[in-house]
Automatic annotation (TrEMBL):
UniProt-listed Gene3D superfamilies: P-loop containing nucleotide triphosphate hydrolases, Peptide chain release factor 3, domain III, Translation factors
Protein name, entry field: Peptide chain release factor 3
PROSITE patterns: G_TR_1 (PS00301), G_TR_2 (PS51722)
This protein's record includes keyword ATP-binding: no
GO cellular component terms given for this protein: cytosol
HAMAP family: Rel_fac_3
Domain Tr-type G: 3-258
Subcellular location: Cytoplasm
InterPro entries given in the database record: EF-G-like_DII, EFG_III/V, G_TR_CS, P-loop_NTPase, PrfC, RF3_C, RF3_dom_3_sf, Small_GTP-bd
Function: Increases the formation of ribosomal termination complexes and stimulates activities of RF-1 and RF-2. It binds guanine nucleotides and has strong preference for UGA stop codons. It may interact directly with the ribosome. The stimulation of RF-1 and RF-2 is significantly reduced by GTP and GDP, but not by GMP.
One GO MF term: GTP binding
Lineage of origin: Bacteria, Pseudomonadati, Pseudomonadota, Alphaproteobacteria, Sphingomonadales
Length: 506
């Protein structure tokens, strides 16, 4: 029997401690499968060397996209949600490939803007969230304040599972409500090194803790898994507090691989045939190689190296000979992958974001959305004879998921939309390198876009009066180009029969 799987991501605002926590999770997990750290033999080495070769020769870094570790018979797949400058639609889409998420917040700062954005994407798909309040070794806010903020801002029920006994300079340890044990800081670094006890908690803290235990609801597994309640853990990634409890919580409470929507059907992980969907395509930065790695979230079946799968976009099967299997722990099964696992598939641009792969070509996963861009730019061609090439390039790149493209109802130049700045740089360099199109990106008057839906007559009417603010996307769907978020609200109020959607299902 293969290990149970837990496929999850960490959502946070930069600096909250995602990187530190990731390292600690991997360390705790013991078996770390990061580039160069796996000492594998035979099949496992082959599996690894395939992708290391790809990385070295072609300059594609895939190692940090998926991190797999094992603990107590559970396999954890941690998917990276790129942040900081790398923030892009990929960051959002990764959340469509996980079954749950850990939300890391800084004990002193609470919910920050990027956390909120990522949380909203989780909510869209009812992805259950475990909250980790990090940096309790520092002076932070009162834990009650943090819990109430999570409850208010995210409209979630909160259920604390731990409590810090003091914070900052007064930090004496971390109480686990489930076991009643207090993890203690040790030595000059005040780290957690494994010492726990059940000593009595001193006066004021005891009162606080009692209040916390009666003041919030107990963990309701169903409410958590529906995305209505979040269990809250406290800790310090830096000093190793709360990390063990967090892993334990993911194993204990986080959902196993979930069925995935395919039209009106739900494809269960227990289905025999292999199915999966592409949630991310990573292109090569080296213009001499057109290789891409498509990341497939496996939904069902047992994948075996060399297996033939049919991509929905292609119609004919491809043999997956050199998959990147991030799971390479058990040498016997290093050439296989299970539902919940991620497989990297090298290809030359045949696989696109949103594609389904299946053995029988009888499934189409739905619900992998596009997200409203947060940066919009007008594309200006340097050489006007290249209009056709530009259009082809923009269509290709939007299909690949690098950018979104909008063709204004009035006016000639196309508008591209992204959610992160880095995507624009990638766009310009790929236009030049791969399509030989020199283009510049100029400011556009628009700040965001919304997909329009509603009764046809209302849409027509809206179109008549708002031509200057309308565009069609690559599929010809009508999009409202807003000059500000306020503009969206205003139009929504004026046109209650229309919906202005920030996401679009592909
Ligand atoms: P990110 O990936 O979410 O951006 O955060 P990262 O882990 O890089 O952490 C941001 C900063 O916060 C780092 O400090 C890190 O050491 C610190 N940090 C993370 N977890 C904790 C914690 O539990 N307690 C305390 N006190 N600090 C924590 P830095 O000075 O910016 O970087 P570095 O020089 O320490 O690497």
């Amino acid at each position: 029997m293969p290990n149970p799987r837990r496929t999850f991501a960490i959502i946070s605002h930069p600096d909250a401690g995602k990187t530190t926590l990731t390292e600690k999770l991997l360390l705790q997990g013991g078996a770390i499968h990061l580039a160069g750290e796996v000492k594998a033999r035979g099949a496992a080495r082959r599996a690894r060397s395939d992708w290391m070769k790809i990385e070295q020769q072609r300059g594609i870094s895939v190692t940090s996209s998926v991190m797999t570790f094992e603990k107590d018979g559970v396999t954890f797949n941690l998917l990276d949600t790129p942040g900081h400058e790398d923030f892009s639609e990929d960051t959002y889409r990764t959340l469509t490939a996980v079954d749950s998420a850990i939300m890391v917040i800084d004990a002193a700062k609470g919910i920050e803007p990027q956390t909120l954005k990522l949380f909203e994407v989780c909510r869209l798909r009812s992805v259950p969230i475990i909250t980790f309040v990090n940096k309790v070794d520092r002076e932070g806010r009162d834990p009650f304040e943090t819990l109430d903020e999570v409850a208010d801002k995210l409209a979630l029920d909160v259920s604390p599972q731990m409590w810090p006994v003091g914070m900052g300079g007064l930090f004496e340890g971390l109480l686990d409500f489930r076991t009643g044990e207090i993890a203690r800081p040790e030595g000059s670094s005040k780290e957690y090194l494994g010492t726990r006890d059940t000593a009595e908690i001193p006066g004021e803290y005891a009162e606080q803790i009692e209040l916390a235990q009666v003041g919030y609801p107990e963990l309701d597994l169903e409410a958590y898994r529906n995305g209505d309640m979040t269990p809250v853990y406290f800790g310090s990634a830096l000093k190793n507090f709360g990390v063990e409890e967090l892993i334990d919580a993911i194993a204990r409470y986080a959902p196993p691989p979930r069925p995935q929507p395919a039209g009106d059907a739900q494809i269960s992980p227990t289905r025999d045939e292999v199915t999966g969907f592409i949630f991310k395509v990573q292109a090569n930065m080296d213009p001499n190689h057109r290789d891409r790695i498509a990341f497939m979230r496996q939904v069902s079946g047992t994948f075996k190296r060399g297996m033939k799968l049919t991509p929905s976009g292609l119609g004919k099967p491809i043999a997956v000979h050199s998959p990147i299997l991030f799971f390479a722990q058990d040498r016997e099964i290093a050439d296989t992958a299970e539902p919940g696992d991620i497989i990297g598939i090298p290809n030359h641009g045949t696989l696109r974001v949103g594609d389904t792969l299946s053995e029988k070509n009888d499934v189409r996963f739905t619900g992998l959305p596009n997200f409203a861009p947060e940066i919009l730019r007008r594309v200006q061609l340097r050489d006007p004879t290249k209009t056709k090439q530009l259009r082809k390039a923009l269509d290709d790149l939007s299909e690949e998921g690098v950018i979104q493209v909008f063709y204004p109802v009035i006016g000639g130049s196309s508008i591209v939309g992204v959610v992160g700045q880095l995507q624009l740089d990638v766009l310009v360099s790929r236009l030049a390198a791969e399509y030989k199109v020199e283009a510049a990106l100029e400011a556009s008057p628009f700040a965001t876009a919304r997909w329009l839906k509603g009764p046809q007559e209302k849409l027509d009417e809206f179109e008549r009066f708002n031509q200057g603010n309308l565009a069609h996307d690559r599929d010809g769907d009508l999009v409202f180009m807003a000059k500000s978020p306020w503009d969206v609200g205003y139009q929504q109020e004026k046109n209650p029969e229309l919906t202005f959607s920030a996401t679009k299902e592909r």
